[in-house]
Amino acid sequence: ATMMLHGKVLRRCGGLGHRCLASAAATGSGPGIATLLAHAGCGAGVDPQFGGVSAPIHLASTFERGADLEYPRGHVYGRTSNPTRSLLEETLAQVEQGEGAA
């Protein structure tokens, strides 16, 4: 469901109890940096195991390998890649209006 608030288009985030600004406002300009940062990780949904509504900090140093010795979830070692770092990269790319993060 969507609604308008102060000229901004709002939509309900996937499973969360709060609302996020959509990528474009009714006036044609997108949300500001403060809004983008405040809503970082929005839409990730509720943690199915514990019910958390904000992104957790992942502290794992190593990640599970599949039978083929590959890393099916894409993360190998916590200092170079983990779900928390991926969320930060995605958020910074969005704030900087980039295509992705390197």
TrEMBL record:
**What Pfam family does this protein match (any one)?**
Cys_Met_Meta_PP
Q: Does the keyword S-adenosyl-L-methionine apply?
A: no
Q: Which InterPro entries match?
A: Cys/Met-Metab_PyrdxlP-dep_enz, PyrdxlP-dep_Trfase, PyrdxlP-dep_Trfase_major
- Molecular-function annotations in GO: pyridoxal phosphate binding
One biological process term from GO is:
transsulfuration
Cofactor entry: pyridoxal 5'-phosphate
Keywords of this entry: Pyridoxal phosphate
Which family would the database say this protein is a member of? Belongs to the trans-sulfuration enzymes family.
Protein name from the UniProt record: Cystathionine gamma-synthase
